[in-house]
Design brief:
This protein is mainly alpha-helical. The protein contains 6 helices and 3 strands; from the N terminus they run αβααββααα.
């Protein structure tokens, strides 16, 4: 059966390859190694045994859990998507932008051309955050 781990242990944060697999598991739900490998191969060539080995390592790290009840082992994420992304982003902001979310946003917006729709969504989010601050 599955054991669920709610948050990512900072000691066992996912590598780039592991994060790619987690993204697939978060969107697909519980999946076999074959299903994950097939999707990985739509982007680039990845051997089945490579995917299997990465997922086995992920299970040892507590990033995924494996259901061995059937012949085909089914893997699923053991960590929450939102909490994992927040933790990785917080670490990235801390390490890259000296903890300044403003500097991250300024860099992101200054380095790309955002559509009007994206800018409107960003403005709406800022207004929402400002309103939440006012209520406190």
């Amino acid at each position: 059966m599955y054991e669920i781990n709610r948050t990512m242990n900072s000691k066992h944060k996912p590598t780039e390859s592991e994060l790619e697999i987690l993204q697939l598991l978060w969107s697909l739900g519980p999946s076999s190694v074959r299903a994950v490998n097939d999707l990985l191969n739509t982007k680039r060539e990845v051997g089945y045994t490579t995917t299997l080995k990465i997922m086995q390592i992920m299970a040892k790290k507590g990033l995924v859990v494996r259901d061995t009840d059937s012949r085909t082992h089914i893997y699923r994420s053991a960590i929450q998507e939102k909490a994992t992304k927040q933790g990785l982003l917080k670490e990235f902001i801390s390490n890259t932008f000296n903890g300044s979310a403003k500097n991250l946003v300024m860099q992101a917006l200054g380095g790309t051309s955002s559509s009007q729709e994206e800018l409107d969504e960003i403005k709406a989010l800022i207004e929402k955050l400002e309103n939440q601050k006012k209520k406190k």
